[in-house]
């Protein structure tokens, strides 16, 4: 079988810069779930921005020709690069852009690395914000921590205690709040007060809203509204309302 020059180049590149270390994505259900939530929620939030790349558990190579110079943040966001699928992220191919925001899901296996080695690497690279979250609350105090790069060193971002007792830390890079609600990490848009949802949560919310509109039809009919008025009020098609009425 003849191997093309492009195929050979690709195989050599992958052998030098692997796209996987063969290890599981996360060591526990909770670590995996929050990794997925973070990537999905931020992808949805930035879906209209073509210059924002959101990913997680992806190899980031930061020195050309040095494959050992690699990190793999659980969740990260890069501004000023093309939104596209990547097998790995090579800084020298991305105009030198490094993540602006990194979130690590801390566990027993990652605690020491998350607390010591990774902050040094991220600071040296110029990652502007470094957040850590411990789903079980066993390894970090407090359970959610955030740091911002100031003159080459990370300084702790002071958390806010909301009136309802919720711990909230603001990310200047994302213009979002990271909040700890009954031990659960969630992203919030402080401008709207709305929680960022995952793909599954978004679909569930859509279905619930659709059902709520349908459930409102009988009550609106009892109030004397016409089918046309109900359709306009509920943002439904006239024929759809007629079908539901029948």
Automatic annotation (TrEMBL):
Organism this protein belongs to: Hassallia byssoidea VB512170
Pfam family, one: Uma2
Domain Putative restriction endonuclease stretches: 41-166
Keyword terms, alphabetized: Endonuclease, Hydrolase, Nuclease
InterPro entries: Nuclease_put_TT1808, Restrct_endonuc-II-like, Uma2
Source taxon at top rank: Bacteria
UniProt key word Nuclease: yes
CDD domains attached to this UniProt entry: DUF820-like
Protein name: Uma2 family endonuclease
Molecular-function annotations in GO: endonuclease activity
């Amino acid at each position: 079988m003849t191997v093309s020059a492009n195929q050979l180049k690709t195989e050599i590149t992958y052998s030098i810069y692997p796209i996987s270390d063969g290890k599981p994505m996360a060591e526990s259900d909770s670590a995996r779930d929050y990794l997925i939530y973070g990537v999905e929620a931020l992808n949805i939030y930035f879906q209209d921005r073509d210059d924002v790349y959101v990913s997680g558990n992806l190899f980031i190579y930061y020195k050309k020709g040095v494959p050992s110079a690699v990190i793999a943040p659980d969740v990260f966001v890069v501004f000023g690069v093309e939104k596209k699928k990547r097998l790995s992220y090579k800084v020298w191919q991305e105009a030198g852009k490094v993540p602006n925001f990194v979130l690590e899901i801390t566990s027993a296996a990652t605690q020491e690395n998350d607390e010591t080695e990774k902050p040094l690497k991220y600071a040296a690279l110029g990652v502007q914000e470094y957040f850590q979250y411990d789903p079980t609350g066993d390894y970090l105090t407090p359970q959610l921590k955030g740091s911002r790069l100031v003159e080459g060193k990370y300084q702790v971002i002071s958390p806010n205690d909301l009136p309802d007792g919720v711990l909230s830390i603001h990310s200047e890079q994302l213009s979002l709040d990271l909040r700890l609600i009954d031990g659960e990490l969630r992203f919030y848009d402080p401008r709207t007060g709305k929680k960022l949802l995952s793909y599954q949560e978004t679909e569930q919310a859509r279905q619930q809203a659709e059902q709520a509109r349908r459930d409102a039809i009988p009550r609106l009919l009892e109030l004397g509204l016409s089918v046309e008025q109900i359709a306009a009020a509920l943002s439904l098609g006239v024929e759809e309302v007629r079908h539901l009425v029948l």
